[in-house]
Amino acid sequence: MIAISVSLLLAAAGVAQAAEPAAATPATLPAADSGPGPLGAVNIPITFESQAGGIYDGRIEIPAEGRRRPWAVLLLGGGLGTDIDWQLPAILSISGQATYDGATIAKALLDEGFVVMRWQAIRRDDSRHAEDPLMMDAPGMAQCFEHARLALAAFRAKKIVPDDHIFLLGHSLGGRRAGMLLEENPKLPGVVMMAGAHLLPLNVQAAKQIIRDAADDFQKADTDEDGLLNADELQRTKQASPAGSPAVDSDRDGRINIHEWTIHSLKVQPEKWRKKNAAPRDKYGHMWTADVVAEHKTPILMVVGSLDRRWLVDLYLTALRLEQTGHPDFEIEIYENLGHQLAKEVAGDVTHPKHGLIADGRAGPIEPKVVRRMVDWIKARAERLKARHGSDTIRPSGT
Ligand SMILES: [Ca+2]
Ligand SMILES: [Ca+2]
After folding, report:
1. Superfamily of domain 204-273 in the CATH hierarchy
2. CA 184 to CA 187: how far, in whole Å?
3. Counting ligands in written order, which one lies closest to the CA of residue 230?
């Protein structure tokens, strides 16, 4: 996984960093990109104001008439905030052109008839951002929770779709905030976690060690080197436990793949990765996302890139938790050779004229197959619910 070390973009990587002091802007800085703008056939602005006084802008984008569904998707960007399009600036993208993954996802949803709700998580009068597109006056995590709550309320107030017809799609810490919204709104119909971050308490180093050992064990047992363990090969693993719980063949292909094996390895040694005396709530007072989803049985799709080693751990353990609680509708998808942005990555130092070395690689844009998978998953849930409850109308005028 590439590491980025500028305030705004670091936010995209899901890692908090202290704000740097503002400095004069040299003339050689890359120009700010404006992004693709509103994508709906109808676009309805929303605004909300935080307790601290910051004003935030967003919009509801509505598909062309004739293809509208009475369902919306609320996009929650990563880190401590992103712009409305989840922009990755040119300097950090593989192609050398800015990428707009939030807009890409929004467009794919609009094409399938979904209403899209998204907002600019950078404050309206953020002067640091105005003078340097790589930077923002980042709020604290508690404020980010507040913003997500206020945004949902502002979107609902427009009454475009019924209150409980709003799916959530969150990237990284945006996934954590989606978990908070689900805790407070248990009737929301489903959530997509893109590299969801901090979903449950755990001993990270111990979990990573188990995952490494599981990979070694898997490789040794896979004697025909097809990347899967058949019944004979399973007998050769260290954790073959005929009396205990066998590895679960989640994708039902008759073999155990490395991810199924890793989840099994975590399952049989919980005393190692469980955090002792972990509180049922995080330090912000919210339930852990894995617990919320398990309790409400919220349909969930989790997607992570195999290079995104930190958040792969949260995916494995959340999947294990949901499996053990008999959750009726969870799916995981791990994409080989993609990183935290669910995009390809290339290694190499990235040097910025003002900030110096800011990253050890470039990424993006999001892989189309990941977008397709997320949209199809939401579509299937919306259609299933429609079959159950009948159709609803949409009020695109916003009145
Ligand atoms: Ca094999
Ligand atoms: Ca399998």
Report:
1. EF-hand (1.10.238.10)
2. 9
3. 1
Say whether the peptide bond before residue 89 is cis (omega within 30 degrees of 0).
Answer: no
In this structure, whether the domain defined by 11-201+279-389 belongs to CATH 3.40.50.1820 is answered with: yes
Q: Structural domain boundaries of the chain?
A: 11-201+279-389, 204-273
Cα 226 to middle of ligand 1, angstroms: 5
Ligand 1 midpoint to CA 231 (Å): 9
Distance 399 CA to ligand 1 centre (A): 60
**Rounded distance from Cα 257 to ligand 2 centre (Å):** 5
Report the predicted TM-score, pTM, of the whole model to 2 decimal places. 0.92
Alpha-carbon Rg for the chain, nearest whole angstrom, is: 21
For residue range 320-354, list pLDDT tens digits in order: 999 999 999 999 999 999 999 999 999 999 999 98
pLDDT in tens, 5-39: 666 665 554 443 333 333 333 344 455 567 899 99
Whole-number Å distance, alpha carbon 27 to ligand 2 midpoint, is: 55
Phi, psi of 105 (to 5 degrees): -65, -40
The DSSP output letter for 275 is: P
CA of residue 204 to ligand 1 center, whole Å? 29
